[in-house]
Design goal:
Elements (H helix, E strand, L loop, with lengths): L3 E5 L2 E6 L20 E4 L1 E6 L12 H10 L2 E6 L10 H14 L3 E6 L5 H8 L4 E6 L7 H10 L5 E4 L15 H4 L2 H14 L6 E3 L5 H9 L3 E4 L1 H5 L2 H7 L12 H9 L6 E2 L8 H4 L16 H10 L5 H16 L15 E11 L18 E11 L2 E5 L2 E2 L16
Parallel strand pairs: 4-5, 5-6, 6-7, 7-8, 8-9, 9-10, 10-11
Antiparallel strand pairs: 1-2, 3-12, 12-13, 13-14, 14-15
Length: 409
């Protein structure tokens, strides 16, 4: 069905179930019908844009250009930068870079500390979506939960569920043994003991169905990433550091079971984690973990339709409506009056062959190199701005913090 929406200040002010040239008399018209079908704009709730002192790996400009190409209308950045986002100065510096450089709307998580005033002051800053708990931060969970409860949980607690005491390192192809599923379950057990009914807790980049079910039974929302659906420990063994990621890739049978259970998740995130090729070329026990995928994430997800694991409705829920619900946004990517006019235009029948040399990301390597994927992002519209159109970036929007659209408690 053809639809025409009239957008003013990023918001839909009129929607018509037909396209008529008369609507263009008093408005600038952009016709995207030939590109494919419009979906609610994708949101990536877990990405590493690096920047600050890690800009040689990625920065807010290149990372969000890659995001727009991958169909994402908004991304939420992780705080494990240099300096770490655990103080107001680092936070303001990071947000300044996002405001100036980003091609998509944005949010950021902060790192916790044992200073309640410090955490509170950062949570009050526009653009802060919540607090990220890395394995080494599990000791702060009770403090952060208490802070968030006092605020009536208007912010999110997002958790990397691995217990640091259960983590060691192994050779390529065997890291699933040294960072076992038990490490995820022990971390979740601690989280379950400290949490209460009504706490807004999200468990990110889940690698297996045991962790998925355990987290869901606790009432937590859960996401996984494309690399846990496409890759396994066998890819880690053959590709080495290019397929090294935390938590690790697991055995093929675990990957296959996760694929069959993909509809149980609340969202798919990318965990886009860029590094320099020099870093990724180090010996396996020295190289950093992380897989970059923003440029091709849209195709990786759409391809799951053709693999018969997802429907188009599943894609909408996992990439847009689910992430929006997790962080507390409504009216995202719909077409009636009052909606935020952010859309991802896709062609389900087009194909790409992954060529990382063409990535907008600075990390021009990929474990998916040479893979054929069916389903392509043809345009990315952010509050009425056509940012990505075909194979090019058309215009840079004035990026907005996602907190502007969050439902206030």
């Amino acid at each position: 069905m053809d639809v025409a929406v009239v957008v003013r200040d990023g918001i839909v002010i009129e929607s018509r179930g037909f396209v008529n040239k008369d609507i263009c008399n008093n408005n600038m018209c952009i016709d995207l019908r030939s590109h494919g079908i419009a979906l609610p704009g994708f949101i990536d709730i877990h990405t590493h844009l690096r920047g600050l002192h890690l800009s040689y790996k990625e920065d807010e400009e290149t990372g969000t250009m890659a995001a727009a190409r991958g169909g994402f209308t908004a991304v939420i950045d992780m705080p494990n930068t240099i300096p770490r986002i655990d103080n107001i100065d680092a936070l303001e510096s990071k947000l300044r870079s996002l405001r100036e450089k980003a091609y998509v709307d944005y949010g950021i998580y902060i790192s916790p500390s044992n200073s309640i005033p410090r955490v509170n002051s950062m949570l009050n800053v526009d653009g802060v979506i919540g607090v990220k708990i890395f394995p080494e931060d599990l000791k702060y969970v009770d403090i952060v939960l208490e802070i968030l409860r006092r605020r009536n949980f208007d912010r999110l607690l997002i958790v990397h569920a691995e217990h640091p005491d259960y983590i060691s390192e192994c050779e390529a192809g065997l890291r699933w043994r040294c960072r076992s599923i038990d490490s995820e379950l022990v971390a979740l057990k601690i989280l379950g003991e400290l949490s209460r009914r009504g706490d807004r807790i999200h468990v990110t980049h889940v690698t297996n169905t045991t962790t998925l079910r355990y987290a869901r039974n606790m009432g937590f929302s859960v996401d996984t990433c494309p690399h846990y659906l496409y890759l396994s420990s066998e890819d880690e063994r053959t590709l080495g550091c290019i397929a090294k990621v935390n938590p690790p890739l697991r055995e093929p049978s675990v990957r296959d079971e996760l694929l069959r259970s993909i509809k149980m998740f609340d969202a798919i995130s990318t965990d886009h984690a860029p590094h320099s090729i020099e870093e990724k070329s180090k010996p396996f026990d020295e190289c950093p973990a992380g897989i970059p995928s923003l440029d091709i994430a849209g195709s990786l997800i759409l391809n799951l339709i053709h693999m018969d694991f997802l429907s188009i409705d599943d894609v909408i829920r996992l990439t847009s409506l689910g992430p929006a619900k997790i962080i507390g946004i409504d009216r995202w990517g719909c077409i009636h009056e009052g909606c935020i006019a952010s859309y991802t235009i896709v062609d389900l029948d087009s194909e790409i062959i992954v060529d990382p040399s063409k990535f907008y990301s600075k990390a021009k390597f990929s474990p998916y190199r040479g893979r054929r994927l069916k389903g392509v992002v043809k345009a990315t519209v952010i509050r009425g701005y056509v940012v990505f159109n075909g194979d090019n970036l058309d215009e840079k929007p004035v990026p907005e913090p996602l907190t502007k659209f969050m439902v206030r408690k």
